[in-house]
Amino acid sequence: MKTRQWLVMRKIAYFGILITILIMIHTISPLVDQNEYQSIQEIEKRTLSVSIDNRLNITDPSGGEIISGVITIEWTILEELIDSSTSYQVHYSPDWGSNWIILSIMIFETTYIWNTTLYEDYCKDCILRISAQNKLFEIFSILSNTFIIDNRKINGLNEVFTYAIIIGIFILLGSSLFQ
């Protein structure tokens, strides 16, 4: 009788492993269909602005790229506009500038480390706005070109490991019941 129960549990364990592998393959395989983006060229066509006077310029992300995880936002400003009190603000828009989210204010460097996983998993109309203010209260702002945030693969891996752990617990509990 125990042999039969053990065979049943082994089949359940194999089934659990198979399900886990299928979930991992689905999640790890490219979730991004390039047609979904309608090509990077379409994004580049929707360029919002460029720094006409070149006083302030966003260098990374420069626009048209697909970003995920933790990235460094970088920008430059003309040296003659910088003084000891020059500060920067960084804003993010998931909807092409209709709504703005403050990422940081009062930055005194020309870089900002941004964890994109704390925001939407997928966004194809993203832009950044960098604003600078010096001691003369001159304010300079620039908008980035559009880019895509796609954290579905990163966040999907967390789900795979969660499923694997749950299935593993069921397998261990089931096999201990029949011993």
Write structural notes for this entry.
- By secondary structure, this protein is an alpha+beta fold.
- It has two domains: 50 residues; 113 residues, Sandwich (Immunoglobulin-like), CATH 2.60.40.10.
- Helix content is 36%, strand content 31%.
- The protein contains four helices and nine strands, in the order αααβββββββββα.
- Strands 2, 4, 5, 7, 8 and 9 form a six-stranded mixed β-sheet that branches. A three-stranded antiparallel β-sheet has the order 1-3-6, with no helix packed on it.
- α1 runs antiparallel to α4.
- The longest helix has 27 residues.
- About 14% of the residues have low confidence.
The topology string of helices and strands comes to HHHEEEEEEEEEH
CATH superfamily of the largest domain: Immunoglobulins
> Roughly how much helix do the residues carry, as a percent range?
25-40%
Gyration radius, rounded: 24 Å
Number of DSSP strands?
9
Overall structural domain count: 2
Reading off the top of the CATH hierarchy, the class of the largest domain is best stated as Mainly Beta
